[in-house]
Amino acid sequence: MTATREGATFASGTATDPAMAPHNMTLTLRIWRQRGPADKGRMVTYQVEDISPDMSFLEMLDVLNEKLILAGDDPVVFDHDCREGICGSCGLMINGTAHGRGTSGGPTTTCQLHMRKFKDGDTIDIEPWRATAFPVIKDLSVDRSALDRIIQSGGYISAPTGTAPEAHSILVPKKDSDAAFDAATCIGCGACVAACPNASSMLFTAAKVSHLGLLPQGQPERNERVVNMVAQQDREGFGGCTNIGECSAACPKGISMENISRLNHDLLGALRAGARPKS
Amino acid sequence: MAVVTVTQPGQRRAPKAAKTSSVFKKVVMAVSGIILVLYLIAHMIGNLKVFAGRESFNGYSHWIRTIGEPAVPAQTTLTIIRIVLLAAVIAHIWAAIALWRQAKRARPNGYVTKKAVAQSYASRTMRWGGVIVGLFVVYHILDLTMGVANPEGPGTTPYDRLVAGFSNPLITAVYVIALILLGMHLRHGIWSATQTLGQSNKRRERTVNLFALVFSVVLIGGFLLVPFSVLFGLVG
Ligand code: HEM
Ligand code: SF4
Ligand code: FES
């Protein structure tokens, strides 16, 4: 092990590969370590060397974990799956912004954030999403099943099963289908909750309500959907939305604030029409 | 080493659910806020009577107290306005405190490092700014309505109290700071109320925000004209 590491240092640090040498980075990481849900947790400082700018943020954490495992330490637990920005599993608070949005320069997931956005010698603070509704499982991994329960409470439509219907039998105006598809790009990562000063899940719920409520297939349950999903998000212990806009700025899919207005509009209409949340 | 990777249902600390819908609280906040804003528009325009002179200003104050007379007893209209305003203020503060507490429960332990990406200064100061504006309103009523906190004291005319107060740079400074805070409160409040009542969309977003900014600047500018004119001796 020592030999390979020295070899690596030799290769990147001397004439063998002069082009690589100035680019690779040494970073100080301050990471939230928490043994389990009951542990208090604390920030722990680590050093990683030889980080290539082409690595993703999660690959950088893989390098740290390999080092920790070789040293006999407990690796840092973090959520991830597709590593291509589509599954919504990953999510870290990086230097105080969700998915490192303050560093990335554009909408991104943590897995699509690249180390070229950082400089040699940087100190990076890494924390889990913090919300009562997202209890920490271990280290940087949180339980986001509250979002699943919001979906269960109303994020569905009733459709007859059987052979696929003729695609053109129900016409959808282009404007509505575009807006519905924009809302449907939400991957349920929870960055909106993490970034919100109120820890509100409003942007997520609004994306789901808009996605189905804009389409003809979503009309039969439209009123009960919105009242039940809002009631469920309150029951889960999320905060209330005060339209600050941190959610939309942090969202990897750029879900816009207009969805929140649409949710409120639907909710007020549904309540006026007599819809009440089921308890 | 034992590694806990799953939260058992029993381990989940059941969060104390909000008793009232968070959106309901916001609607109360928006509607009561709009009532207060309508009052502020009338109040600001009324204040400009100072520039028409002592008689006109004091006459205006007298008129508010006698609207509808003799069909209704003295002060009827003013009393109704005061009851509506008080109800709006109580509703507004109730909703603000309820949402504040809900946010605190939703994230009891904050981040070690947290940075804002999009949050405006106005939206960041809604809560403490609102508290300061609320305290200011109490002082303001003791000062100019009741006169007990005014250099001229009670039993004087509204015009004299106003001139005596704003001749003091310290009192003028208090008003200026409170009004600037109120302006920021309204800047975010108008945008937020539009969202809460479901009246915004991508196309309107810019217009709503621009309107909120221009409205707040004009309203607060109108209010500020009076103390500055007294301070610089244009009204005396
Ligand atoms: C103690 C006094 C006050 C407190 C604690 C307070 C607090 C708040 C809070 C927390 C909000 C919600 C902020 C947000 O959306 O992020 C708000 C909104 C608002 N406030 Fe106040 N406020 C106070 C006084 C006032 C006054 C004096 C006015 C007007 C004269 C006013 C007008 C508004 C309006 C129009 C809104 C927007 C409603 C909405 O958010 O949907 N507030 N206030
Ligand atoms: S709205 Fe955006 S930030 Fe929130 S869960 Fe969906 S994709 Fe993530
Ligand atoms: S790991 Fe799937 S979105 Fe990041």
TrEMBL record, chain A:
| Record flagged with keyword Cytoplasm | no
Q: Transmembrane region positions?
A: none
User: Which Gene Ontology terms describe the biological processes this protein takes part in?
Assistant: aerobic respiration; respiratory electron transport chain
Domain 4Fe-4S ferredoxin-type stretches: 177-207
Regarding protein family, the annotation reads:
Belongs to the succinate dehydrogenase/fumarate reductase iron-sulfur protein family.
Q: Which NCBIfam families match?
A: PRK07570.1 (NF005746)
Q: What is this protein called?
A: Succinate dehydrogenase subunit B
Q: Which organism is it from?
A: Geodermatophilus siccatus
From TrEMBL, chain B:
**One GO cellular component term:** membrane
What InterPro entries does the database record attribute to this sequence? Cytochrome_b-558, SQR/QFR_C/D, SuccDH_FuR_B_TM-su
What SUPFAM superfamilies would the database entry show?
A: Fumarate reductase respiratory complex transmembrane subunits
Stretches that traverse the bilayer: 27-46, 80-100, 121-142, 162-186, 207-235
Subcellular location(s) per record: Membrane
Q: Entry's Gene3D superfamilies? A: Fumarate reductase/succinate dehydrogenase, transmembrane subunit (1.20.1300.10)
Give one Pfam family, short name only. Sdh_cyt
- Molecular function as annotated in GO: metal ion binding
Kindly indicate whether the keyword Metal-binding belongs to this entry. Answer: yes
Keywords, in A-Z order: Heme, Iron, Membrane, Metal-binding, Transmembrane, Transmembrane helix
Answer yes or no on keyword Transport. no
**NCBIfam families, per this entry?**
sdhC_b558_fam
**Record's protein name:** Succinate dehydrogenase subunit C
Q: What is the native source organism of this protein? A: Geodermatophilus siccatus
